[in-house]
């Protein structure tokens, strides 16, 4: 009974924050894509249903990100020029990352409006491509900045730091896979591979949230 109560409490804590809910939705969406890829040749009809589930969840997450602009602006203003970073390189990477995010969210909003035919956009493919580019840049800069921070404090590395690098690396791989075919490995990964990468990344994200909560107790 106590274990069941603890599980319910942990699950409630996870979904009681925006970041926790988004990570859980990411896990469900990517998990559905993973099942779709696994069943693609075995049961095409079932695979198609899971593709629909994954697409709907992804759309819901994109809709929720429409309100992320203001928090990103606030964070960027508070971050400033990275005065609290350990060195200038890390600060520069932080400023670049914030600049990319400030551009990414409005671009994604335009893509969302165009997808739902609220905004008439001449070339939706170009906007979608631009959105993927900024998604890749954001993931890459976050990874490089995190690795730079850890390289300056190697003696203090712990399990959480390793998990962070692993997750950011998976996010970068996943982001590049959304690029059109011909750019790195864009469009070359199968549905099964993309689903596996996304599911693993989301799983690590859930682990991080729960682990950080335990450390604060």
What does this structure look like?
The protein has 217 residues and is mostly helical. The chain is built from 8 helices and no strands. The chain has helices at 2-15, 18-39, 44-64, 69-79, 88-115, 124-151, 159-176, 191-216. The longest helix is centred in the middle third of the chain and has 28 residues, at 88-115. The chain is globular and about 50 Å long. The two termini are 21 Å apart.
Total helix count?
A: 8
Query: Roughly how much helix do the residues carry, as a percent range?
Result: over 70%
Biggest sheet statistics: none
Structural class: mainly alpha
Radius of gyration: 19 Å
Q: Average pLDDT value?
A: 90
Shape field = globular
Low-confidence stretches: none
Number of strands: 0
- What proportion of the residues form beta strands (DSSP E)? under 5%
Q: What is the end-to-end distance?
A: 21 Å
